[in-house]
Write a structure and sequence with these properties.
With 333 residues, this protein is α/β, with parallel strands linked by helices. It has two domains: 2-125 and 301-331, Alpha-Beta Complex (Quinone Oxidoreductase, Chain A, domain 1), CATH 3.90.180; 127-277, NAD(P)-binding Rossmann-like Domain (Rossmann fold, 3-Layer(aba) Sandwich). 31% of the residues lie in helices and 26% in strands. Helix 3 packs across helix 4 (156-167).
């Protein structure tokens, strides 16, 4: 089958389109004919080698963490789905590979595709929707009446997180360029801050929760807008020792992450707030719940551009440019 492969870790690496062996199907796996694949900054970070100590992939590697397609074969122990089902998934770490014609995925990481959306839209959702759910529902435990600050509202995670936080009953503040304000207001944002002309820490105060996706200075400012007992979850770092536990990394990686995150954890403690890092995980059960929200019209995919599969490198470059509003997808059909 055809696939785009990464031959070496390099920030500037170009993925190579080549023929690769068909996926090997395990007892609990489903084989999916890929119709569309979503792209994420995580693909770029894996490409650059940023996670090679935590996720020791064997090269050459097929990138791609978001997939939508049709089940064409099932393993002997599969019970959740059947041949012919339309599904979407964020394959688990160690088994990614959406930039290809087919992929084998453990059935626990798969959910039925919402019927109300296209394959392209479905492929845009898994990673960012699961990230939003795990940040807002699991870690921040957002409740009705709370105030939540979601950074970079026009990005892939931001567009879904705003909708989910609104559904949970929170007042939502976000940052973006003024040109995105109309879209974000339509998604449910209550407080819109132009990051080019305004500093959010001079506007927001007494917030219950922050979803941080930006750099260290932005994270440090985010701590100051929280009320005592507030929480910040970061998806951009610095990672804590919990990430080493999650990925099964060696003890010295755990020690390194403890040191790396010590400064921000200390600052959070001094302000009476809580800091945690989120490295989202695959979860088909959660994805099925998110699919129900899509079917109910509560969550709407936001797709910026769709590229043909042959232009996967161009699509990834567009993601890396930071100009995308919502998600970028490559389509095989």
């Amino acid at each position: 089958m055809k696939a785009f492969i990464l031959n070496k870790y390099d920030k500037k690496a170009i993925l190579q389109l080549t023929d690769v062996p068909e996926p090997t199907l395990r007892d609990h796996d489903v084989l999916v004919e890929i119709h569309a694949a979503g792209l994420n900054l995580l693909d770029s970070k894996v490409k650059s080698g940023e996670f090679k100590q935590l996720l020791p992939y064997k090269l050459p590697l097929i990138l791609g963490h978001d997939v939508a397609g049709i089940v064409t074969q099932v393993g002997t122990n599969v019970t959740k789905v059947k041949v012919g089902d339309e599904v979407f998934s964020r394959p688990s770490d160690g088994r990614i590979g959406a930039f290809a014609e087919r992929i084998a995925i453990d059935e626990k990481d798969v959910a039925l595709k919402p019927k109300s959306i296209s394959m392209d839209e479905a492929a845009s959702l898994p990673l960012v929707a699961l990230t939003a759910w795990q940040a807002l529902v699991e870690q921040l435990q957002v409740r009705k009446g709370q105030k939540v600050f979601i950074q970079a509202g026009s990005g892939g995670v931001g567009t879904i997180a705003i909708q989910l936080a609104t559904h949970l009953g929170a007042t939502v503040a976000t940052t973006a360029g003024a040109g995105s304000f109309a879209m974000l207001k339509n998604l449910g944002a209550d407080v819109l801050i132009d990051y080019k002309t305004q500093s959010f820490d001079t506007i927001l105060q007494g917030y219950d929760a922050v979803l941080n996706s930006q750099d260290q200075p932005t994270l440090e400012k985010s701590l100051t807008i929280l009320k005592r007992g507030g929480k910040v979850v970061s998806i951009s770092g610095p990672p804590t020792a919990d990430l080493a536990k999650q990925t099964g990394a060696p003890w010295y990686v755990k020690l390194l992450l403890t040191l790396i995150s010590s400064g921000i954890r200390r600052k959070a403690r001094n302000l009476g707030v809580d800091y945690s890092f989120l490295f989202m995980r695959a979860d088909g059960t959660q994805l099925a719940e998110l699919g129900k929200l899509v079917e109910a019209g509560i969550l709407k995919p936001v797709v910026d551009k769709v590229f043909p599969f042959a232009q996967t490198n161009e699509a990834l470059a567009y993601v890396e440019s930071g100009r995308a509003k919502g998600k970028v997808v490559v389509t095989m059909k």
